[in-house]
TrEMBL record:
GO terms for cellular component: cytosol; small ribosomal subunit. SUPFAM superfamilies: Ribosomal protein S20. This is Small ribosomal subunit protein bS20. The keyword Transferase does not apply. Keywords: Ribonucleoprotein, Ribosomal protein, RNA-binding, rRNA-binding. It comes from Comamonas koreensis. GO terms for biological process: translation.
Length: 99
């Protein structure tokens, strides 16, 4: 049995229609940023797994800026961004110490 999406009613009021349009735009922007965040994290972790210290540090710097941007925009909580940065920094540092 397939679950289908619930059918949404169109808003009657102009303000409701405008809010629906805004929601679609905001959702697309947030989805894009969330994807950029996941890609940045994944790239750093791949570099760490490969043992490439210079590439990992370079990608970590880029990932930091992406994390800060996402936290500033409120897509993720600032504490989550800080926690993720800390965990990645620990992995990069461990790689640097091992080499």
């Amino acid at each position: 049995m397939m679950a289908s999406k619930p059918v949404k009613k169109n808003p009657r009021l102009a303000s409701g229609r405008k809010r629906a349009r805004q929601t679609i735009k905001l959702n697309a922007a947030n989805t894009s940023l969330r994807s950029k965040y996941r890609t940045a994290i994944k790239n750093v972790e791949k570099a760490v797994a490969a043992g490439d210290k210079t590439k990992a540090t370079e990608l970590f710097a880029k990932a930091q800026s992406v994390l800060d941007t996402i936290a500033d925009k409120g897509i993720f909580h600032k504490n989550k961004a800080a926690r993720d940065k800390s965990r990645i920094a620990a992995k990069v540092k461990a790689l640097a110490l091992a080499a």
